Amino acid sequence: MVTKIIHISDIHCNNYMLEKIKKLNYDILISSGDFECLETAEIFSEFKNSFAVSGNLDDISIMKHLSKKGILLDGKIKTFNELTFIGIGGIDPINNISVIKNFSFTKYKYIILVSHNPPYGILDKTFFNVRAGLKEINSVLNYIKPIMHLFGHIHESSGIENINNTIYINPGPLSNGNYAEIILGDKIKAEIKNLNEGN
Fold first, then answer.
1. Statement: residue 199 has pLDDT above 60
2. Rounded CA gap, 48 and 115, in Å?
3. Whether 34 contacts 10, CB under 8 Å
4. How far is CA 101 from CA 53, 96, 105, 112, 194, in A?
5. Domains in the chain, ordered, with CATH?
6. Which of 69, 124, 151, 154 supports an S-S bond with 133, CB 3.0-4.6 Å?
7. Radius of gyration over alpha carbons of the chain, in Å?
8. CB neighbours of residue 177 within 10 Å
């Protein structure tokens, strides 16, 4: 079975770019947070097959809305077809991590970790060349061994890396038009695209 995932992050109230995502063909839409405006979260929640974590700039009203719609992943596990999504939000990542570490993952075949923050040392360099990832996320990665880790937060470190059988993706900010297109089939194909470039 082939599944197409669109991964976005750091929307920052740019509803114009979010509306453009609606025109893309996908099976699952994932957001790594920083909607920043409640209206933006409301628009996102209308999309089909969507899941999201909170960002550090999101407030409790955004979390409540996403939770009410059943799409918030913070500290939760949700399955879609054969895929299992686990979330670490940007509002309270340490608490989310402690909750996740109590779960058993042996029954899940294809695990995808979704967080706002990157892990330490992977696609987490700021403009000042400082690594800003969370080391606590690294410990979760070692525990659950996901096939993919989708995150954002560090706008200037967009990219794709394959390390120890996990594909790490930071698409960069959707507020600038960035998103990742991921095809899950016999192999995983991932590419970062930009809505301004007509991809």
1. no
2. 20
3. yes
4. 17, 9, 10, 15, 35
5. 3-197 (3.60.21.10)
6. 124
7. 15
8. 17
Share of the chain above pLDDT 90, in %: 89
Q: What is the DSSP letter of 174?
A: G
Give the list of residues 6+ apart from residue 176 with CB closer than 8 angstroms, or none.
17, 155, 194, 196
Give the span between the Cα atoms of 191 and 171, in whole angstroms: 9
CA-angle at 133, arms to 91 and 13, nearest 5° = 45
**pLDDT over threshold 60, residue 102:** yes
The mean predicted confidence, pLDDT, of the chain is 95
What are the pLDDT digits (tens) for 176-198?
999 999 999 989 999 999 999 86
Q: Token pair for residue 104?
A: 């058993």
Please name the residue that has the structure tokens 């698409």: 171
If we measure between CA atoms, which residue out of 151, 60, 139 comes closest to residue 97?
139
Please answer whether residues 75 and 49 qualify as being in contact, where contact means their C-beta atoms are separated by less than 8 angstroms: no
114 pairs with which residues across the strands? 87, 150
